[in-house]
Amino acid sequence: MTPTLEQDAPKAARILRAARELGLRHGFRKVTIAEIARAAGVGKGTVYLYWPSKESLVLGVCGREIVSWLDQVIDRLAEEPDCVHLRRLAPMILNSTLGHPLTRRMMTGDADLAHVLAQRDEAREVLERTKAGAMCHAVMPVLREHGLVRDDEPPEIQSYALHAVLYGFLMTLADPAAAGPLSVDDPDLIISQVIGRLVEPDDAPDPDPAAVAAAARGTRDVFAGIRDAVLGLLVAP
After folding, report:
1. Cα distance from N-terminal residue to C-terminal residue, the chain
2. Residues 6 or more apart from 225 whose CB is under 8 A from it?
3. Please, which residues have CB within 8 angstroms of residue 170's CB and are 6 or more apart in sequence?
4. HEC string of 178-224?
5. pLDDT, tens digit (0-9, with 9 covering 90-100), for 187-197
6. What is the DSSP string of 161-183?
């Protein structure tokens, strides 16, 4: 079962919420257990009843958020298999990521957050799988297998290009002011067009619905495997 704030003990949920809010506002390296406990309305000892260290607590906060993000993507693919087409999958993932700011920070290698999480040796390998580049690398072979992306370039090159483009769009969407006068009315349309031209087949017939359904299942399996690995790091208080 996915650990969520609703399933956590009430005090643990308050601690998680306080840690998340303070971490987003001030950075997790600067925030102390004492500050988190004060914001949650509990004593420091109560925090340590649930998590043995600040690093464990930060992992609990970030892990829950990335699991929530992955569940959202997995559910969407289950409901609408056609979303597996990258021209639809890319804007959907980017918009979902913007709604999960800690996921965005983890995927883009936020130095402050990475420093805290790196203190947990057992988490490093799993958290590497949650980065955008690793996900592109994991999903690309599935899409190639079912004919949803071109096969005229090696998959590692396509994955690299896809990651670079998605990273750029993510950072631009997260900070629209940085684009200056280059704002557009429908960024999702631009994302869809760019991704389609980048990796999808040119002038090819629509893929067989069975192939699309299989690609959606395979892509869900990739994300579910990452989700389950993150869940393995978490112990619900």
Report:
1. 13
2. none
3. 94, 97, 98, 104, 107, 108, 132
4. HHHHHCCCCHHHHHHHHHHHHHCCCCCCCCCHHHHHHHHHHHHHHHH
5. 999 999 999 99
6. HHHHHHHHHHHHHH-GGGGGGG-
Question: What pLDDT digit, counting tens, does each position of 47-77 carry?
Answer: 999 999 898 899 899 899 999 999 999 999 9
User: Closest by alpha carbon to 98, among 24, 180, 188, 171?
Assistant: 171
Nearest to 136 by CA among 169, 110, 172, 112: 169
Q: Is this model's pTM higher than 0.85 or not?
A: yes
Please answer whether residues 92 and 28 qualify as being in contact, where contact means their C-beta atoms are separated by less than 8 angstroms: no
Exposure string of 119-158, with b = 16+ CB inside 10 Å and e = fewer, is ebeebeebbebbbbbbbbbbbbbbbbebbbbeeeeebeeb
Cα gap 150→197, rounded to integer Å: 10
**Under a CB-based contact definition with an 8 Å cutoff, are residues 120 and 128 in contact?**
no
What is the Cα–Cα distance from 165 to 133, expressed in whole angstroms? 11
Helices and strands (H, E) in the chain, number of each type: 12, 0
